[in-house]
Design a protein that fits this description.
The protein is of the alpha+beta class. It has 4 helices and 15 strands. It folds into 2 domains: 85 residues, duf1285 like domain (duf1285 like fold), CATH 3.10.540; 102 residues, duf1285 protein (duf1285 protein fold, Roll), CATH 2.30.270.10. The radius of gyration is 19 Å and the shape is elongated.
């Protein structure tokens, strides 16, 4: 694999072919957690803050290709890699690799269950293992993130964040009244309830 700054078209074709073969070896996502191939350098590929993928500064306009690369994405020590059984290349991620772009609310045996669709068409049910966390936003307010798998997260769109706020409730957590949302029997606090009331 050519390193960043060199011609990488051949390397990208090789990576695409290897990812395609890995994806057809069985059902579900490829077992990237089991692969430990040699590191082959950095690829000039970037995932922007809105979930868009770029290669050599140009948007990757094929959703199927973005979807393919997303299945072989791995995070190690705060770095992101595309991994196949034979090679590992580094890529840049501005924030987190995915966006949660749609939410559906259902009822199950534990009450309300929130299901989120990512920008690569994966559905993730929010629960104790796939939790929501809320971080301070750059321009104020909160930015929600959803755990997708392994150490990979999705940023929840602003529109969905407002939906979460609308369905929020107050609960006492460790003696503090917190405002948050429930899904699949788990409660995900956003912020101190008094701070939320003062901001509204």
């Amino acid at each position: 694999m050519a390193k960043q700054g060199q011609s990488t078209d051949n390397g990208l074709d090789r990576l695409t072919s290897a990812a395609t073969q890995a994806g057809t070896s069985g059902k579900g996502l490829p077992p990237v957690h089991l692969w430990n191939p040699p590191f082959c350098g950095d690829l000039d590929m970037r995932i922007a803050g809105d979930g868009s993928w770029y290669y050599m500064g140009t948007p990757i306009g094929r959703p199927a290709l973005v979807r393919l690369f997303s299945t072989i994405l791995k995070r190690e020590n705060d770095r992101y890699f595309l991994v196949t059984p034979v090679e590992k290349v580094g890529i840049r991620v501005d924030d987190v690799p995915f966006m949660a772009v749609e939410m559906r609310k259902e009822r199950d045996g534990q009450g309300v269950r929130l299901n989120f669709r990512t920008n690569v068409d994966d559905w993730v049910s929010c629960d104790a293992e796939h939790r929501l966390r809320f971080e301070p936003g750059e321009s104020g307010g909160l930015t929600p993130y959803l755990h997708v798998r392994a150490d990979l997260w999705a940023k929840v769109t602003r529109a969905l964040y407002y939906e979460l706020v609308d369905m929020g409730e107050e609960r006492v957590i460790d003696g503090e009244v917190m405002f948050g949302v429930e899904s699949s029997g788990a409660f995900f606090p956003m912020a101190n309830a008094e701070e939320v009331r003062a901001a509204l």
